[in-house]
Amino acid sequence: MSMNAPAARIVNGTSRADLVAIAELVAPGSRVLDIGCGDGQLLTLLETTRGVDGRGIEISQQGVNECVAHGLSVVQGDADRDLVDYPDNAFDTVILSQTLQATYRPRVVLEEMLRIGRKAIVSFPNFGHWRVRALLGLTGRMPVTRKLPDPWYETANIHFCTIRDFVNLCRTIDAKVENAMVLDRSGRRIPFKAPLWFWNLYGQQAVFVLRR
Predict the structure, then answer these.
(1) Where does 77-147 show beta strands of DSSP type E?
(2) Contact 110/123 with Cβ under 8 angstroms?
(3) 175 and 119 in contact (C-beta within 8 Å)?
(4) What is the CATH number of domain 17-127+159-211?
């Protein structure tokens, strides 16, 4: 694994570390599909800083309306069901940002991403972070943190995974990790030479670039 991008910073008013990191990994002028694009913050960042030909798919009508109001090309759809409608290699890069853990079939979603895109970029919260482990171990309750702010009965997260879990899934579906980075709770990037156990213990969120 490697980590070539520089430290995260504020770009076009966006300070969410994983979005800045993702934008730096996308080739200028490329065709991009953002799955679960929300209000279009990442698509806007990609179009303004990378000049991409961006498309989005979002399950909530409110999110679609916000995106369209900002001139973004976004349709309503469900990642678990609707990716099969896209042809093979339709995009240079397919992105799933902070959404994998909210899908019903994460393995299938990843496989579909790698089918319709030449590369896939996935970011997700790390449920193996030491703070999550400590809260669960000491309190006996599901953790609530800055990155996981909702109580268990209101969270959209249904498949909790660690960085190690994700790496193992990539091996299972024979996906190649082209690039990877891990961010701590302040959005700083943990050096790529750190071993996987260190990433899994101290990384609060991860960004992976995958290919077939």
Answers:
(1) 91-97, 117-125
(2) no
(3) no
(4) 3.40.50.150
- The whole-number pLDDT of residue 7 equals 39
Which residues lie closer than 8 Å to 125 by C-beta, 6 or more apart? 98, 101, 147, 148, 157, 204, 205
Nearest Cα residue to 111 out of 145, 80, 152, 67: 80
Q: Which residues 6+ apart lie within 8 Å of 89 measured at CB?
A: 115, 116, 117, 118
| Residues belonging to the chain | 212
Q: Is residue 203 a contact partner of residue 190, using CB atoms and an 8 Å limit?
A: yes
DSSP one-letter code for 189: B
Provide the angle, in degrees to the nearest 10, between the axes of the packed helices 17-25 and 41-49.
Answer: 40
- The model's pTM is 0.88
Query: How is residue 166 written in tokens?
Result: 């994700």
Q: Please, what are the averages of pLDDT over each run of 10 residues along the chain (212 residues)?
A: 42 70 96 97 96 97 96 97 97 96 96 98 94 91 82 86 96 96 88 84 94 94
